[in-house]
Amino acid sequence: MADASLYDLSPVLRLALLGIAVASGPLAWVWLRNKQAAPAQRLAALTLLTLFLTFDLVLFGAFTRLTDSGLGCPDWPGCYGNASPTGALDQIRAEEARMPTGPVTHGKAWVEMIHRYLATGVGVLITTLAVATWLQRKRGVPVQPRWPAFTFAWVCLQGAFGALTVTMKLFPAIVTLHLLGGLVLLALLAMQAVAYRQAQRGTGAFVLPASTRHWLVAAYVLLWLQVALGGWVSTNYAVLACSTFPACQGSWWPAMDFRQGFELWRPLGMTGAGEHIHFAALTAIHYTHRLVAYAVFVVLGVLAWRLRSGPLHRSARTIALLLAWQFATGLSNVVLGWPLIAAVAHTGGAAALVVALTWALRESRAAPVAATESRDAREVSA
What we know:
two-stranded parallel sheet, 382 residues, flat
């Protein structure tokens, strides 16, 4: 469990003010660019900008994790009870003298705190969206406050997981859930952005053949499974368990310990019984992610092909490009020894796929069964 002594709430007010300062720039930009626009259009613009900044936050979160900066400030929400590492110089220097490479160093402390500043700023933007949508709804503007309110609740939960990530010393299950929570935020904001887009053009969702819509749903479920597996690989530092492709350790089926590898509730690098985790367990984590990746490529490839000539042809191109991106960055992680830029880019590609497939799902609906059967009958007779 988390150590209560690691929570020091004294810098909360200063951190909140910093979050407001971070959010004030995007808020001012949206207001100035849409000063003459209708309230719903301003909310749509703010939703898109918040989606973009949340994507950036996910990337910076990956950078924080991959540079081992997650414990750069070992308490929460500040840094040794201060709003910035500047006020904690003595404590950080003492830790650096004891362990020069970390986990606490001056550079890592700044990376961790910048991540918290950005997260607080995104939280302020999401709070603004929820409050503004509710106020506009009360004034009779046809906007839906339910999803912004749920997104606000989710970002609060995400903040709690961010705190547990630090205070539970990078527990793999907590860190993975924190990553997934960030991607859920992206999906929620993407859904709202599409809803505004549909309202502005005055049309509903595009109609897809039922079979194509089923492929889309299946691809979405499989993508989330793969994202969770990828997070488990990253949070267990299992990327280098296989350093060749397509085989692993010179074998198509290397020695693997699935029981240890997928024991979910355990400290980093340890089993639940307090023993050091075996290398075979890390191999199992890595290789499972790789095997599921093959299925993801097939399913998303077929989906992109089926969408290529319909109303979602742009989504088809985006999915195809992101698949190529994920293959290139994933392969680079393996054969180049997990370079930082490739690792961050791989996380970014996964996040972009979540947005792209969420967008396609929200922009589409299945054709009625009778219409689908009639179309199929026409194709057979032809």
